[in-house]
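Field: COMPLEX_INPUT
Field: COMPONENT_COUNT = two
Field: RESIDUE_TOTAL = 297
Field: MODE = joint
Values follow.
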Amino acid sequence: MALDVGFIGRTYPPTAVYEVGREKIREFADAIGDPNPVYRDPAVAQDLGHRDVLAPPTFPIAITWPAATVIIEDPDLGLDFSRVLHGEQRFVHNRPIYADDQLTATVIIEDITERMGQGFLSTRTELNTVDGELVVTGFSKLVVVGAGAGEGEQA
Amino acid sequence: MIKFADVAKGDVLPAQTFPIRRVDLVKYAGASGDFNPIHWNERFAQSVGLPDVIAHGMFTMASAIRVVTDWCGDPGMVVEYQVRFTKPVVVPDGVDEESGARLTVTGKVSAVNEDGTVRVDLVATSEGEKVLGLARAVVRLP
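Field: COMPLEX_OUTPUT
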């Protein structure tokens, strides 16, 4: 159960490049039921001053969550995936993600704590363009529970 | 389009109610890549102690911010957004348009900051219970 606090600060290598694309943004917007044309029509996005269609504010999770599986699958850390819940999520946007972005994700373990028999793992995932511009930072708090249901959404 | 100068602390954003049906969770699983069976398989969900299939927390988070993005007019103005997943949104099975769950989201301006941003606090409820905690967004308005 005990999580090794020695993993605090561990930074995993950047992922392969994720090419965003207009159709992926449209698919995501459709899936969250948001009809906003700014996610679909480049002309509407450009009228608002954007260079291309932009992604919804929570779209980065489609990149950061798969990237964070390196933590769950890290054999040294030994997490049991079936006991990991998604407790909190935060995004900091330096700018919106655009359809023409090519991004890599870098996952960092920020903190590991324990409280009342539960483990808490705080991660930071930075999405950078291939040119090194930081676009979005995603912060996830994962809860590692014992058997039985805990607070939070099962990951 | 909302202007920074027109916003005051305490302003109430237009509330919205979003239907969440099983098909929405299937679509979200596909688009997000999160295929955890608790979001589409009732037997599996119950086997891990849940009452029924539950919505992806990230689906709820994505729905809730629409109260902000529809209000401010440009989703690109959202500079920060956070939630805590405090209670699952249970999504019952069904065949008609009325099936599934309802998510109701309200928002209120909780701070007007000197740097040209405003903070909006969100309250998201389903079946009368709060499903998100500490749900807040920071928006940079023109």
